[in-house]
Design brief:
Distance between the termini: 11 Å
Helix content: 25-40%
Order of helices and strands: EHEEHEHHHEEEEEHHHEEHHHH
Number of strands: 11
Number of helices: 12
Strand content: 15-25%
Length: 405
């Protein structure tokens, strides 16, 4: 039986996700700073343009983080630090640097292609896809408003010129970033050299696609933030992080906290953990949950209490559910082998398929009678915990037909 359920939609308050794109000199930094002032909260700038945003320090109130390169790992860390400092609106200027700039994704892939994979660009991209997705997840899950600037470049395409002739024709401009970078952003503004902005994508009904702003600025930023911010409030990622780090949290508490973060789509938010290191919120909660389980198992047994009458729930017709004893494997080698296989599954796109294969093999062991019901149930729970830590949907119920999906 499927666990999927259609329900009535509930509108939730969203933070702004805006792309401001245009050629160099079109006013990307200036326009983004103006819009950020209208969105509210402390404004921060991640600056890869040789600290160019500092030129406008007398005109705008913002905090500034110059970065020496376009390393994606460095931007993920900057996003976590910005969240920690409760920056209300963050400007990433520019997002192009983390794609094609020094030590950007394309540069890293080119290096792997040349020095590790003997010219095989596809294998190099396969190695870096997880980093690319981690960067994108960190951007979209930032707990404040976000503006990313992108430089555009001329787009050329091969076209049929007639009479059997092919030619390279300028087809307009496109942002220097991965294709469809703004697919999950709510708003895209394209600037020209006169600093005017044309809305080329909008989920904000008050500002339709095609609208032109001669001087886009604070008013536009305010309209975007207010329209997207209507709806039910969502949990705060840092509040959830602080709860997860509370030593009094039990494994059950952390399991509930993980579900709350998953429902709010916050599992991939980059936060600083108890060691001041960058970690995805979902991974942090799962790690603390596993730690809580180990600590519970290592506690000394409570002294025996005098025998007392069984509670009402343990009278004929039911069993007491007040306590769940720690699990002791019947076949320790079997459980250890499967637990290791689950723990080393990748965190990339292959993870779902790997866990599905492990689950199918486990069901076959159960059908063949080579594993006890208790050990089978324990390993199955480990699989589902691993899925939860990766933000994947749960599999089939434990009693489903062996080997089927």
């Amino acid at each position: 039986m499927s666990n999927l359920v259609f329900e009535a939609p509930v509108r939730v308050a969203l933070k702004s996700r805006v792309v401001v794109q245009g050629p160099p000199g079109s006013g990307l930094t200036w326009t983004s700073l103006r819009m950020a002032q209208g969105m509210g909260g402390t404004v921060g700038v991640v600056d890869t343009n040789r600290a160019a945003a500092a030129l406008y320090a007398e005109h705008f109130d913002f905090v500034h983080l110059p970065l020496p390169s376009g390393s994606p790992e460095l931007l993920i860390e900057a996003l976590a630090v910005a969240a920690e400092q409760r920056i209300g609106t963050l400007v990433v200027d520019s997002g192009t640097a983390f794609w094609s700039g020094r030590n950007g994704l394309v540069t890293q892939v080119d290096h792997l292609t040349l020095h590790k994979y003997n010219g095989n660009n596809n294998r190099a991209w396969t190695e870096k896809r997880e980093l690319e997705q981690s960067l994108f997840d960190a951007l979209l899950s930032f707990p404040g408003h976000l503006i990313v600037t992108l430089r555009t470049q001329s787009d050329y395409q091969v076209q049929d010129l007639g009479e059997g002739r092919l030619g390279v024709v300028k087809y307009g401009t496109k942002p220097d970033q991965r294709n469809n970078f703004d697919a999950d952003f709510a708003f895209t503004l394209s600037l020209d050299m006169a600093h005017a902005g044309t809305v080329t994508k909008s989920r904000v009904l008050d500002v339709p696609t095609g609208a032109v702003f001669e001087e886009p600025g604070e008013d536009l930023g305010k309209v975007i933030a207010e329209w997207l911010g209507q709806g039910e409030p969502v949990p705060d990622a840092l509040d959830i992080r602080d709860q997860a780090l509370d030593p009094s949290m039990t494994a059950d508490d952390l399991r509930d906290l993980h579900r709350l973060a998953a429902k709010a789509d916050l599992l991939r938010t980059a936060v600083l953990n108890e060691h001041e290191q960058v970690e995805a919120l979902g991974a942090l909660i799962f790690r603390k949950g596993e730690q809580a389980k180990k600590e519970r198992r290592s506690r000394p047994a409570a002294p025996e209490q005098p025998a007392s009458p069984p509670p009402a729930s343990a009278q004929p017709g039911g069993e007491a559910q007040d306590a769940v004893p720690d699990y002791v494997p019947e076949d320790k080698a079997f459980v250890a082998q499967w637990a290791h296989a689950i723990a080393v599954t990748s965190q990339g796109p292959q993870a779902a398929e790997d866990l599905a294969t492990i689950e199918a093999n486990l069901r076959e062991e159960k059908a063949a009678g080579t594993v006890s019901q208790a050990d089978y149930g324990h390993v199955y729970r480990l699989i589902e915990q691993r899925r939860a830590s990766l933000g994947l949907p749960y599999g089939q119920p434990p009693n489903a037909t062996a080997g089927t999906r």
